[in-house]
Specification:
By secondary structure, the chain is of the alpha+beta class. The chain is 49% helix and 13% strand. A four-stranded antiparallel β-sheet has the order 1-2-3-4, with no helix packed on it. The protein has a three-stranded antiparallel β-sheet with strand order 5-6-7, with no helix packed on it. A three-stranded antiparallel β-sheet has the order 8-9-10, with no helix packed on it. Strand 9 and strand 10 form a beta hairpin. Keywords: Membrane.
């Protein structure tokens, strides 16, 4: 049995009390209590008239939360109690009215608070808004053939349930204050994402919902989350977890996808901005998404975010294929490098593509933009002798450096290699650069063959034959080591 502290009175008649009895609410005698019987029945007993109301059954544990703390950091002031039984964890909310424990609304449990069935709850942290439990894990040891059982603590937040409950009751200010209390906690971003996801799922699954309600619960949820910097990550994360057919409903409440992308771009949150590209393609069209992706590609290259840049290149080339109505030929499929065909098509491919595709000009213009950006960045790294970044750039974006160098060599523009490996460089500096060259060549022997063939074919590069011999020996020994 647990006493339930009386709810704070707000009625004006409460002021008509004598000064002798004007004590704090915590000193008042309770007028209700919860009773959990041995058979699992949980009931609410009125201590004034003796009436008892059965609430639920098959309950193992319960925790009274209302009025248990005067600390302003308590996150569960809007909860009367929690219980745990065969249905899992359940939250009981007080309802607004003269008697919050007799309203029908109070008996409606929150169906979205699902606690892990493999975790047994042990307690409640009111100031953090989480339920703490314990689970049993298996571990194996060489000392015995039998598995060992290791208890492991687990925690689950109820913040998203509390926030949704407040928003449903039009208590937006209280919900904001509650969220502010938990802003610095590690589970805060996950709670906001779970809140938006559950609200959005409920709205799209309810076909007979009142769409004319203004503002809707989804709009109020978005307005709440907008107050926090996690908003952009939360919205796009929820979008990626839901069907793209419903994205229009989500972003009608959350804001235009291009505006959210632009805000992330201006804040230099490039990873988050990249997540909006597919949403923009779905809602705003391919040309708009391609324009945003090209801007983001240039920015990620400037920041040396080559893995992210590679993802953007692949997206841009996939979207470029949408202009091509026919399937690629076998010769196209046999391109040795991912970007070889798209960035450096031969004259034969160009003629055949023009003949069979009326939209080639649009495709070529689109792919040429990607080509120019990658080539410009490669030239920038070469001119700055940034060999380490060049290696990362090639790996991340799959840029076909071999064909690019061959093309540069055809115009006598092999100055990058001559500058970085000139004989008058110091031995230590040259040795360091040679190590970088080896790291670059050992991942692509085609590049090494193009490099060595170019130096050997030009008489002006005869002074580099010693360097070629040294690099060749090291690369050969490296191949032998890998095979062994």
């Amino acid at each position: 049995m647990r006493f339930i502290p009386d709810q704070p009175e707000t009625d004006a008649s409460v002021k008509d009390v004598s000064s002798s009895s004007s004590s704090s609410s915590s000193e008042k005698e309770p007028i209700r209590c919860l009773i959990l019987r041995a058979n699992g029945e949980l009931s609410l007993l009125d201590l004034i008239d003796g009436r008892e109301m059965e609430l639920t059954e098959s309950i193992e544990l319960f925790w009274v939360t209302c009025g248990r703390s005067v600390d302003k950091t308590n996150l569960i002031e809007e909860v009367s109690w929690l219980d745990y039984g065969h249905r899992g964890m359940q939250v009981w909310y007080p309802s607004s009215g003269a008697d919050p424990y007799k309203q029908e609304e109070f008996l409606q449990l929150d169906p979205e608070l699902e606690f892990d069935r493999e975790v047994y709850p042990l307690g409640l942290l009111p100031n953090a808004g989480i339920v703490v439990g314990i689970t049993q894990r298996l571990s194996f040891s060489a000392c015995t053939e039998f598995p060992c059982f290791e208890p492991s603590p687990q925690a689950q937040t109820i913040l998203h349930c509390l926030l949704r409950h407040l928003l449903q009751r039009d208590k937006s200010e209280e919900a904001l204050q509650l969220a502010r209390l938990s802003e610095e906690k590690p589970h805060f971003s996950h709670c906001l994402e779970w809140l938006l996801f559950t609200v959005f799922e409920a709205e799209i699954s309810s076909q007979n919902a009142n769409r004319n309600q203004s503002p809707s619960l989804l709009e109020k949820t978005c307005d709440l989350i907008k107050k926090f910097p996690e908003y952009f990550d939360v919205v796009v994360s929820v979008a990626r977890k839901t069907d793209g057919r419903h994205w229009a409903d989500l972003f009608s409440a959350a804001g235009r996808s291009t505006e959210l992308f632009e805000e992330c771009f201006q804040r230099r949150w490039y990873q988050t901005a990249a997540c909006y590209i597919l949403v923009i393609a779905k809602l705003e069209g391919a040309p708009v998404s391609q324009y945003c992706a090209l801007r983001l590609l240039q920015a990620t290259l400037d920041e040396s975010l080559y893995e992210l840049a590679g993802e953007l290149v692949r997206f841009l080339l996939r979207s470029g294929r949408e202009y091509e109505p026919t399937t690629p030929t076998d010769s196209d499929k046999l391109s040795p490098r991912f970007l070889g065909y798209f960035l450096f098509p031969s004259s034969y491919r160009r003629q055949s593509t023009e003949a069979r595709s009326p939209s080639f000009k649009e495709q070529n213009a689109h792919v040429a933009s990607v080509k120019n950006i990658l080539e410009s960045h490669a030239s920038y790294l070469m001119s700055g002798k940034e060999l380490s970044k060049l290696v990362a750039f090639v790996k991340g974006t799959q840029f076909d450096l071999v064909e690019y160098l061959q093309w540069k060599c055809s115009f006598g523009e092999f100055c990058f290699w001559t500058r970085i490996d000139r004989p008058e460089a110091s031995n230590g500096n040259l040795a360091k650069r040679s190590e970088v060259l080896i790291d670059l060549f050992r991942h692509d022997m085609r590049l090494w063959k193009a490099y060595s063939a170019t130096l050997e074919s030009h008489p002006s590069f005869s002074e580099y034959h010693d360097l070629l011999g040294s690099l060749g020996e090291k690369l050969s020994s490296n191949e032998i080591t890998e095979e062994a």
